[in-house]
Amino acid sequence: MPSGASQTLITIIRRKQLCCYVKQQFLLYTTKYGNAATLDSRQRLLKLATDVEHARAHKLVLSEVAKIMITEHNDDNPSEKSPTTTNLSPLPHKKLVLLFVLFGAVVSNLSSEWDKFKRDYKKQYASVAEENERRQKFIENINRMRFYQEAYPYATFTMAMNHLTDRRIEELVSGSKFHLDARPVLLKTSIEVKNLPESLDWRTKGVITPVIEEGPIGVILGPLVATELVESLHAIHTNNLTEGSIPRVYDCCLVAPDPFECMMKLGGICRKIDYPKILDKCEPNACKPFTTFDEIKRLIEKDENKMLTWIQESTLWVVMNGFGKGFGDYKEGIYDEPTCPQTDGNHAMQVVGYGIEGGKPYWLCKNSWGDNWGEKGYIRMVRGKNMCGIANGVVQVAYKKTNSATRLFVIYPTFLICVLVMMISRIFAVYC
């Protein structure tokens, strides 16, 4: 029968599922340091938790392992009670057998999950080395998710395995920075927040294009979200939802000081079918734009109430920090993570609405990681806390407040020319 300390260790391993790390430490101490090696066991264990991304989780478990090992040693050697300098001896054989049986069950379970993951998402890797690397990252992500959910059982969102679980979060967000030096424009509005509807979802209006997956590198994310904003603006004013060409914006505006002004200079955006692939060079005349805009609004105040008034007109571009705990593994619920940084925006999304659930207000955001991620490709971010810096870099494209004829001319110049020709023809018909 295992002692109380051993049983505590078994519980920790079973609950946290950090088997790889704990196993490594036990192998180290029972083989290399078994012969009366004197060292600070707690410091030794903590130094081995070198993965910065998961340091908090690892340090917690490894610290507990250190304390338990000291307890086990002191139980067997009553004369030595030092908590910092201890002669470590190998654990009894029966305890090691029990631990390794548990380790085997845990590793087997993770292997089954890995096999299922590859089947479900049709994963194929170029080499054995790449697969091993992805498998290790998969295990780390699964362990991190389980630890978080155990540590924060009352979190307002859940996490789950998805098609990106074999990747680092840095692969998804660190490359998505998109230069934005738009001239700030603050428009006065007569809309009072108290008079706004409790919720809004532009998806129900038929003005939001389907969620797409940008791929493992986030460099295309800026052009993607910028294009989505213009698509939605066009659809709101014409009742005609058309997918724009993201590759054209990528080719011509990726490194522009202000991507939105670059899009305006190009005459707007082209249809996806007219410019379907990235050419890696800008061809301004490769396609004919089907829509444009003539105003760029940027919120220079971190004011989520003003965001509420703006979104009544059209959708919003936001740049937030994608390194928040659980963001990459988000499954459903309202994402509310107090430790998420509010600086260093590195991930862009399109805000398509807002609402309240269970008394908790949220923003409805369209991501670009495919519909296997989150709530069919969307995430609800808590509203009113500047969560992950969501209010730091808000942009909206619009048409200037001109008369309808001018606005139509911006969108449909050919149509207006035809109307004028018809009117002139009728005049000539009357007088001739």
From TrEMBL:
GO terms for biological process: proteolysis. Gene3D superfamilies: Cysteine proteinases. Residues 114-172 form the Cathepsin propeptide inhibitor domain. One of its GO terms (molecular function) is cysteine-type peptidase activity. Keywords: Disulfide bond, Membrane, Transmembrane, Transmembrane helix. Belongs to the peptidase C1 family. This is Uncharacterized protein.
